[in-house]
UniProtKB/TrEMBL annotation:
GO terms for molecular function: exonuclease activity. This is Exonuclease SbcCD subunit D. Residues 94-307 form the Calcineurin-like phosphoesterase domain. It comes from the Archaea. It comes from Halomarina ordinaria. The keyword NADP does not apply.
Amino acid sequence: MTEFSAIAVADPRESDRRYVPAGAKLPVAPESREVLPVKVSSEEVDWAISLLAEFPAEPAADRPGDGVDLLLDPERVHRARENVGRGMTGSETTVLFVSDTHIGYENREKTGRGSTVSWVQDISSEETIGRVTRLAIERSVDAIIHTGDILDHEVDKETLEFASGILSGLSSRDIPVYCIIGSHDHDSANPQHPDSVDGISWLKTQVTKGHLTELSTSPTSVASGPLDAYGISAGNVGIDDVGKFHSREWDPSDIAFGAASSGPNVLCLHDGLTPYRRYDADVDLDRLLAQSHVSFDCVLIGDEHRPKKRDFENGYTFEADDGTPVFYTGPAMRISEPYRNHGAFVTELTVSVDTVETRRHEL
């Protein structure tokens, strides 16, 4: 018998108890968290296959998807997932799109690192992420997607402990949080003030606990649903690579996206991009999309701290050359001058294979 240490077990379904000995425990599918069935009706075959496809093929294969091509026919798995609603064109996923929370921003007054807005005394990282959490729960979103600068460059232990509680609470309510990181997240690895702590170490801990999922150029299923999310962190330097690579420049030709599923796809970025910017852009978004083998339903960006052309009505939404919609939601706190007389907000996205709908929520 082969044991899988990374796979949880649980009591069997009530309908299966007659087929297993008393006290028996059955595997729990690692993504959907459903107990593997013992007796399967003809109507449940597709569901059972989709659960089996979540398991690794061998003890060393602990990454989602490993083993699918060894134990199960990929085409059969694809059909099964479509039949049970994973990847169906009519399925929708609702996410709360958040960016540039800059947790710890108010510490700039004490540390002297970085400019501040004149109303910095009115800013509270804890209040902001608390409001985001309450909104996610009230709106019953499937997930939260954060497009970087989760942390400011100087963040204290107490604030991070509060943020840890927030992420733990979201996890307990089955609201996963997906992210890329920004330049201030990078800089938080090397705080200069004695009251600040290593922010990257904290981010790594949240990922290890399963309270935060970092996006990459490979697809990540959002809340085990039809939506796949991709992401490129600032400078193409992810959480594990901070300190190893210092480049803040990358070219679209450097990027190869993993194959997408049949459902909708979203790409998350945190660098200065065309067409939002013209002459000072870090990355040509149109080139990136043109050379991609994945067709994205929308792009979510971070970093900008203001609407395009300071147009608070229409400056958060624009299109790439190929028609792909690009969205920004602004900083979650009023941390830039354009927000002197404007409130910060987050954006609720409802994504299907045919449409992307948006709704703003002021914080």
